[in-house]
Amino acid sequence: METGYAITEKQSRALDTALSDLLVLAEAESVFMSDHGGNLIACCSAETHNDGLIQTVAALAAGAFNATRELAALVKEPEFRAIYHQGSNRSIYIHALPSDFIVLVVFGEATPVGLVKLYVERTGREIESVIRTIGRQDAATAGKQAVKFELRDGDDMFDR
Amino acid sequence: MSFVNFAKKEINFKIVYYGPALCGKTTNLEVLHKVMPDEARGEMTMLSTQQDRTLYFDFLPLKSNAIKGFISRFQLYTVPGQSIYNETRRLVLTSVDGIVFVADSQWEEMEHNAESFENLQDNLKGHRRKLEDIPYILQFNKRDLPNIAPVEYMDFMLNQQEEKAAFFESVASQCVGVYEALNMICKIVMAQFIREHNMGATTEAPNEKDLAVKAS
Ligand SMILES: Nc1nc2c(ncn2[C@@H]2O[C@H](COP(=O)(O)OP(=O)(O)OP(=O)(O)O)[C@@H](O)[C@H]2O)c(=O)[nH]1
Ligand SMILES: [Mg+2]
Q: Could you tell me how many CB contacts below 8 A there are between chain A and chain B?
């Protein structure tokens, strides 16, 4: 969508619920959802992360996913769906969702990757219709008739 | 492409610093990270080679309250300037909302500036987008060096589009002109966002029941 897209409060709650279920069922430490451009859409974690870290995870997840998908295309693999990084203490699983969204799961050594994979795919199916709607929905639609965006006074955008 | 989160009252924008190798894109972000107030900036991440050359991208998240009632997040990215990294340059442009084209003012870099500007347009085509439709500004960097081209010359060379872009002179390594350029691109990006979105502000919203499906 050329002019961007938006998410309503209700859709945001639905995604939060889905991600927190995923966190528990997949025995994960953190779950992040972002789009291909690197925007964070939703996240859920057993521990609290600072805001900067969450934004960075979303940006890097999208970067890693885009780069790997590009590699897959080079070796003529059109069906590329997931990346798995196995670490010694923590591992990362990134999985494609419809409408150019991705989900990233961080999990510890005690959690088998098969479990994560199983529940990520299940979550993907559950939220499919919500995220397809989000991907197609602009801010006027999501914000209902009353949204009017307005710049505040002043020339300095960051109050330096 | 902007992303509005009505639950968190946030708007996300993606700004990409583009330009030839070694023109000072990474330096722009480094300096911004230093001078921004704490509450406005996040951590800076650099994906670079051993020689400090950008390999994939640099990333710096910033926050502003310039749009009433919302937090505006500006996610700043740089691309790698070295010509071998064109695929990654194209990937970083995914969903871009605004571009700062950083040119190196030294005479011997003029050809590289022109090539990079053309490369930017080619890579946007790969996303089925056009530079004319995206807010962008020009930043003529390294104005402290002795062998530099006059601003008028660079403007003539890089600012041939029908709608001329604003340009800034800068010395990124000394933080001259860097914040001004950022402030301008953010302002233009928000102005375009507001223009596009307020046009549709009277649209009837569809039934929420049709939109949301319970995730259980
Ligand atoms: N004299 C001078 N040097 C500068 C200026 N801005 C950046 N530099 C220097 O130019 C060199 C390259 O800067 P970078 O910011 O790494 O360049 P880049 O565009 O990110 O390069 P790539 O990542 O390879 O594309 C560094 O040594 C900087 O210190 C400037 O305004 N004046
Ligand atoms: Mg760099």
A: 206
